[in-house]
Amino acid sequence: MQTSRIRDGVRAALPLAVAPLLFGAAFGVLALDAGL
Predict the structure, then answer these.
(1) What are phi and psi of 18, to 5 degrees?
(2) Which of 12, 32, 14 is nearest to 24 (CA)?
């Protein structure tokens, strides 16, 4: 029971953890493309 609750929490938090990484990668590519 406890592990399933932890798994649900991880599944809910994972997109929130990945979003800044994707944003940073996209921003870095745009900055390099713009010559910054």
Answers:
(1) -80, -35
(2) 32
